[in-house]
Specification:
The protein is of the alpha+beta class. Helix content is about 20%, strand content about 20%. The strands form two sheets. It has a ten-stranded antiparallel β-sheet.
Length: about 350
């Protein structure tokens, strides 16, 4: 995650045209992925705007996520406040789950003679972030966003009681082109009986970095050239080898392997910084659709892995599609250097 010593001197400041910048390949130990930075393929960093901003969010005639329509949803798991008809958020089962929570008794029984098939046991839940249809997550105050984060934590702790579950992915799709099928602000959680390949690759990359340097690469991610902002407990950065244009990571300042160890104070602190970053993205990039993902450690991570596993929240504005080269190689092309993005985002004023 740390940058080469020449990164801040490579050029590409406001006085340089993108045509004069040389392409560069960077490998990030966190994603364990090579990224090609090819600024000649793009405009100046300040010229990036979403071509398909989020559509206005009119309330449809019957949105099941709106307050008063609770009976139209899949079963509720819990709400905040508990048992209150005037709820602030609800956690429910997904009406169309990708995995089945009813298959646990079979979850350790392979269906074939190989280990390449297991029963599709898991959990797929939805967090409805507000009772009001027109409110987006970035409209909610830091305490309210903290409540959403603590709801993730509570549900993770509940799911972790199931021994068959190995990894839990929290994610948010905001906007139709980012994968959201409902316009009412919500996020999702999927609990898997396997550790996904991207997670395994992340563990391999951070382990290699730790063995080479004796340090956690995410603890080392706070180079001044890449930092956008910080709060008491978190820092927002553009990663040194950002896979996507204007990608942002929010990282705990203190070494922490598991998101669900987040306490109430840090949840509000993270809520404030997350709100700030979403507002900056909306202002600078013409309110683009976006995704965010919480990258945490597998539930059964070993004691020896803890020194190099460090959770973070990744925000990806949807500004460009993925083409055949990326699909074929797993190597991405980013048309804007991360340090240029960090400079632009630092300068976005929200006042």
């Amino acid at each position: 995650m740390t940058s080469p010593s020449h990164a801040s001197d490579r050029g590409g400041g406001d006085g340089d045209s993108v045509e004069n910048q040389s392409p560069e390949l960077r490998k990030d130990p966190v994603t364990n992925r090579w990224v090609i930075f090819s600024p000649a393929r793009a405009k100046r960093p300040t010229d990036f705007k979403s071509k398909s901003p989020q559509n206005p969010n009119p309330k449809p005639s019957s949105c099941p996520f709106c307050i008063g329509r609770e009976q139209e949803c899949a079963p509720e798991l819990f709400r905040v406040p508990d048992h209150d008809p005037n709820w602030k958020l609800r956690v429910i089962e997904n009406l169309y789950p990708a995995l089945s929570r009813n298959l646990e008794t079979q979850s350790t029984q392979p269906e074939t003679g190989t280990s390449r098939t297991i029963v599709g046991f898991g959990f797929h839940d939805v967090v409805i972030e507000s009772p009001v249809h027109s409110i987006q997550l970035s409209d909610i105050d830091p305490v309210g966003i903290g409540d959403v984060l603590i709801a993730y934590k509570k549900r993770i702790n509940q799911i972790a009681q199931h021994d068959s579950i190995n990894y839990i992915q929290v994610f948010k799709n905001q906007g139709a082109s980012a994968g959201a099928s409902m316009s009412h602000s919500h996020s999702q959680m999927m609990a898997l009986p396997v550790v996904p390949p991207t997670v395994s690759s992340r563990l391999d990359g951070t382990k290699d970095y730790f063995e080479e340097t004796g340090k956690c690469c995410l603890c080392e991610a706070k180079s001044k050239h890449f930092v956008i902002d910080e709060s008491s407990h978190f820092v927002s950065v553009v990663p040194f080898a950002a896979t996507y244009p204007f990608e942002i990571w929010i990282i705990p300042k203190d070494h922490s392997s598991h998101f669900h160890h987040l306490d109430d104070v840090k949840a509000v602190d993270l809520g404030g910084l997350l709100k700030h970053m979403l507002q900056k993205i909306a202002k600078q990039l013409n309110d683009p659709p976006y995704n965010y993902m919480i990258h945490t450690s597998p539930l059964k991570v070993t004691e020896s892995q803890l020194p190099y596993t460090h959770w973070f929240l990744q925000i990806v504005p949807q500004l460009s599609g993925v083409g055949g080269f990326e699909i074929g190689t797993g190597c991405y092309i980013n048309p804007v250097f991360p340090e240029d993005v960090a400079k632009v985002m630092r300068e976005v004023s929200l006042t």
